Amino acid sequence: MRGWWQDFTDLVLPTGCGGCGTPRTALCARCRTGLTGRAPRRVRPLPEPSGLPVVHAAAPYRDSVREVLLAHKERGALNLAKPLGEALAGAVGGGVGVGGAPRNPSTTNRRPSLLLVPVPSSRGATRARGHDPTRRMALAAASVLRRAGWPAGVAPVLRQRRGVRDQVGLGPQERRANLDGALRVVTGGDTLLAEDVRVVIVDDVMTTGASLTEAARALRAAGSGITLTAAVVAASPDSFEINRN
User: How confident is the model over 87-93, as a mean pLDDT?
Assistant: First the structure.
């Protein structure tokens, strides 16, 4: 498990760009542009799972974007959470129409009207990594949205109710079967899922859409009538190709 001194070292002494390895910078200008330099796009996997909410992504999952996400997720480069959060905030905004001033300025100092719900990692993965990367990015994204005047909050209300296999190497049908019924909303979490709150499921990457679909199922079961969208930092390049026309 990471110690506090490792976290501190990552923050103040970046060893190289998380995307390309350029020395003495956490994220170089070129790799930052690859991550946040394009307008968020709606993405859809093929085949598209039934029940998948509308998903927006900031960038295709390839090249430097892939390396940045892996550096943050698997190699503990915590200083990348802020730029990844900025990218995720852009994807959230693409789905719910965030731009300019809030639609309901009077709610700014009340409870959040935009709720980011991270797809949870397993307890074992969180222990092995020493942090929960999706939750960390969600918190950074909510901070970006609040600075823009949107009352955004993070609600980590999803939990795994049973063990699941590692998704790496599984096909679309295998991933759906692996995750079917695997998530639940924690006791009391349903109180946050009000009809006047926009709920956005957030994750780092979308490939087949199985994780987002299962998260949506669990949230709909706990909060009838809620408005759901989803946002990810990156998605399979094929899903971007689908939406060019």
Answer: 96
Closest among 31, 87, 84, 79 to 56, alpha carbons compared: 87
- In 3-state terms the chain splits into helix, strand, coil percentages (rounded to 5) of 40, 20, 40
Residue 71's closest CA among 60, 59, 84? 84
CA 155 from chain centre, in angstroms, equals: 12
Please give the pLDDT value at position 225. Answer: 79
SS3 205: strand
pTM for the full predicted model: 0.84
Q: From CA 241, how far away is CA 245, in angstroms rounded?
A: 8
Nearest to 208 by CA among 179, 228, 165, 184: 179
Taking alpha carbons only, the member of 45, 41, 72, 80 closest to residue 58 is 41
Which amino acid is present at 5?
W
